[in-house]
Specification:
This protein is an alpha/beta fold and 139 residues long. The chain has a single domain, classed as Chitinase A, domain 3 (Roll). Helix content is 25%, strand content 28%. The strands form two sheets. The chain has a five-stranded mixed sheet. A two-stranded parallel ribbon has the order 1-2. A hairpin with a 2-residue loop joins strand 6 and strand 7. The two termini are 26 Å apart. The C terminus is likely disordered.
Length: 139
């Protein structure tokens, strides 16, 4: 369990709560419960007060797996915009949920079937996908 404070803009928080509400009505998966836990512990701030190095919806984040040394980069999206070949990662993917709200320099603990992986955030670039609306029926 991550105990580091995470920050989410009020705009992302509202959209993610809407997505979560719609998704939980039809499909109560572990990833949805994890997203709810992350939203419940998040410090919600106005978008203008959110530092540029925080992972938000639409951010492109570069991170390193501290166990393997592998460096990856993805853009965090709503489920209907996700495309792994285009490096667009759904917020409902376990790694997407794990990354939201963390900052450059943070080490994120990500639970996988093989154990806990530690991901160190190296770079966050803000995008424009955060202005998109979530799909009413997540995929």
């Amino acid at each position: 369990m991550n105990t580091t404070s995470i920050y989410i803009s009020s705009e992302d928080h509202s959209k993610l709560r809407l997505l979560l509400s719609a998704a939980l009505r039809s499909n109560a998966t572990a990833s949805l419960h994890k997203l709810r836990e992350e939203l419940d512990r998040a410090i919600v701030v106005e978008p203008s007060a959110l530092p540029d190095d925080v992972v938000t919806m639409g951010s492109t984040v570069q991170f390193e797996d501290l166990g393997s040394g592998e460096v990856e980069e993805y853009t965090l999206t709503f489920p209907d915009q996700a495309n792994i070949e285009q490096k667009r990662l759904s917020i409902l993917a376990p790694i997407g949920t794990a990354l939201i709200g963390f900052r450059v320099g943070d080490v994120v603990n990500w639970t996988t079937p093989g154990g806990i992986r530690q991901l160190k955030l190296h770079r966050v670039t803000q995008g424009h996908a955060a202005t998109s609306r979530p799909s009413a029926s997540p995929q």
